[in-house]
């Protein structure tokens, strides 16, 4: 199957859901992205700043670039001019830095707060207390050039799909509560839930995801 066929099949299988497909192109060449682009795909996800920027300058300018990997503060400046959505905000310091660089570029950068729900402690993200503290912080009000659009989460790396479903459900429940509590803030507009990868996107959509991040099911296995 070609990259285009993979995308079209995926979209066909999921046509009853409303969502954005982010094609995760990390470790895949620009030619593969172009092939996906030709089938109409416009949202692409990368997890490294350097790799994303190298691709961005060489590829069509209407591509929407999603940063899905851990982001270091000193690298925000490289993606601030063009990034479409940062999924991986995991500290207030990082959010402040994004705001600063967005301001320099005279734009607003949309962000998702990454929440840690998986059993493994290797994955980045905020716990629920840290997340609430951020949303309640008075300093948040001073950030004029960011908008918090929602949450991102990765489920546990397990074959037990009931655990995965439970974790996604938990995120959705918190998300709905936070919408009620925080969407009145000028820079909070919770409307996106980024959950679901190649192994669990169907479950994620059933549990309310609005953005799925798919790599290997589209591009094949990554070679490192
Ligand atoms: C690599 C990656 C994905 C895509 O994973 P696949 O299993 O290949 O679909 C999704 N989200 C994040 C944060 C990733 O790093």
Q: Mind explaining what this structure looks like?
A:
- This protein is α/β, with parallel strands linked by helices.
- It contains nine helices and eight strands.
- The chain has helices at 3-13, 30-38, 49-58, 76-79, 92-104, 128-136, 161-182, 201-206, 216-219; strands spanning 20-24, 43-46, 64-67, 85-89, 109-116, 146-154, 188-195, 211-214.
- It has an eight-stranded parallel beta sheet with strand order 7-6-5-4-3-2-1-8.
- The chain is globular.
- The two termini are 22 Å apart.
- The model has no long low-confidence stretch (mean pLDDT 96).
- Bound molecules: pyridoxal-5'-phosphate (PLP).
Features:
alpha/beta, binds pyridoxal-5'-phosphate, globular
| 3D shape | globular
Q: Which parts are unreliable, with pLDDT below 50 for 5 consecutive residues or more?
A: none
Gap between N and C termini? 22 Å
Number of strands: 8
Strand content is: 15-25%
Give the proportion of residues in helices. 25-40%
Compute the number of helices. 9
Derived from helix and strand composition plus strand pairing, the structural class reads alpha/beta
Ions and ligands = pyridoxal-5'-phosphate
Please provide the ordered H/E string of secondary-structure elements.
HEHEHEHEHEHEHEHEH
- Widest sheet: strand order? 7-6-5-4-3-2-1-8
Mean pLDDT: 96
Radius of gyration: 17 Å
Please summarize the sheet with the most strands. 8 strands, parallel
A few lines on this structure:
With 224 residues, the chain is α/β, with parallel strands linked by helices. The chain is 39% helix and 21% strand. It is built from nine helices and eight strands.
């Amino acid at each position: 199957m070609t990259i285009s066929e993979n995308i079209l099949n995926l979209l066909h299988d999921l046509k009853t859901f409303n969502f954005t497909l982010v094609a995760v192109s990390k470790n895949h060449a620009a030619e593969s992205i172009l092939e996906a682009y030709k089938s109409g795909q416009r949202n692409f996800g990368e997890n490294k700043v350097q790799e994303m920027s190298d691709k961005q300058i060489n590829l069509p300018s209407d591509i929407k670039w999603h940063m899905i990997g851990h982001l270091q503060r000193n690298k925000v400046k490289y993606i601030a001019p063009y990034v479409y959505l940062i999924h991986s905000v995991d500290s207030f310091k990082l959010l402040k830095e994004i705001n600063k660089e967005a301001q320099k570029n005279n734009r607003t950068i949309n962000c998702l707060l990454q929440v840690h729900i998986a059993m493994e402690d290797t994955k980045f993200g905020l716990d629920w207390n840290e997340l609430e503290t951020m949303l309640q912080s008075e300093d948040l009000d001073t950030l004029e050039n960011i908008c918090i659009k929602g949450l991102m989460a990765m489920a546990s790396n397990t074959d037990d799909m009931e655990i995965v479903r439970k974790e996604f459900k938990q995120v959705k429940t918190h998300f709905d509560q936070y919408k009620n509590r925080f969407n009145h803030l000028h820079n909070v507009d919770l409307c996106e839930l980024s959950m679901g990868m190649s192994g669990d996107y169907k479950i994620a959509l059933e549990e309310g995801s609005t953005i799925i991040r798919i790599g290997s099911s589209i591009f094949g296995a990554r070679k490192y």
